[in-house]
Amino acid sequence: FGSSPPLAQVVSDWLPFHLHSSLSPRLLSNMTEKGYRIAADVNKEGWEKASFPVLCETCLGDNPYVRMQKEDYGVECKICVRPFTIFRWKAGTRGRYKATVICQSCAKMKNVCQTCLFDLEYGLPVQVRDKFMEEQGLNKLSLPPSKIGRDFALQEFQKQDDSSLPYGKAGAHPMLKRLARMTPYYKRNEARICTFYVKGACNRGQDCPFRHELPEGGELANQKLRDRFHGENDPVANKMMRRAEEMSKPKEDKTADVFSIAGGATSSSEPATGVVPPPGGAASGSTYRPYYPSMDPRAMGNSPLEGEARDK
Fold first, then answer.
1. CA torsion, points 130, 131, 136, 142, in degrees to nearest 10?
2. Rounded to whole angstroms, what are the CA distances from 265 to 221, 253, 255?
3. Is-above-0.85 flag for pTM?
């Protein structure tokens, strides 16, 4: 068999003259044996590809040599539902394997870690940080609830630089400095509780990679990732806000009602003349006579009889 002509030449000869004249040579060259060539990159618009994650020191772990696994477009973001590059690593020598859960665009917009979603500067929940930032006159950034609105907001955010963000522009709030966690908290990287152990069905024993403990429960047992990112109804933030209110209350001065007499302390309910009841108290039915510590021989260290009665 002889060599067959190229497909573009066959199509050019087969099409009518009026259609052939309207088609450009570039369009004819893009045609393949199965029809027009599909541009796959169009469907990847907005997908994120990164070389290193945005993480806090706690999530990285105590091991300075971190070995990470990387997969481009491996999972979708939990906030904007767009594919992004996922990273997975072991957080420290005794920590569990952790992975990124949100994309870098959402993380940079809120200045949070891609894994734990805590603030990168203070290590606090977003709800706590935004509350004190609003008291300083700074506006917090938020994403629209609809998917189209989120995509548009992220596109506009990517066009801007980091100087447009409100973080770090004003001085830190005094309460933020008091609540900030500046040292790593590696207890957060511990293995999760074994669900089979809670049911009494775990047969791995000491070889089980999960913790054999019973869950404590309480308000911290129901934590949602979206609530932490948007700063709404976060139980961890609510607990820290109550702690901030207690720290802001003025402390009561309890030393104002206490004064000292001859090395002893008495309350203000006792006579203001410095008269102190005798040790052991007055006997019932007897007339009370004032007693002064300076008149007690035992206070001078020369008591002849410790059991001698004071009032006769």
1. 40
2. 47, 16, 10
3. no
